[in-house]
Design a protein that fits this description.
79 residues, alpha+beta, three-stranded antiparallel beta sheet
């Protein structure tokens, strides 16, 4: 899977905090630091790209409206 460095960094951070909601502001500071230009919109764009790239996997990124994002693993069990 081809991913840019910030996409990798974002995925790693979400995986480290899997199952918990990570604030958008936290992601901005982790991905862009204090010297880089970053915004919640940039995080939204990275999330969108990651969702597309992960669409055929068991990894899902859920939006907690007005708060942040949560990474969840799903199972393929159909019962």
């Amino acid at each position: 899977m081809d991913m840019g460095p910030r996409e990798v960094q974002l995925l790693e951070y979400l995986m480290q905090h899997s199952g918990t909601t990570v604030l958008k502001e936290t992601l901005v500071s982790k991905l862009f630091g204090y010297g880089d230009v970053g915004s919640p919109n940039a995080v939204e764009l990275l999330i969108s790209r990651l969702r597309k790239k992960l669409s055929n996997t068991q990894i899902q990124i859920h939006t907690q409206r007005s708060v942040g994002y949560q990474l969840r693993l799903t199972s393929n069990d159909q019962g």
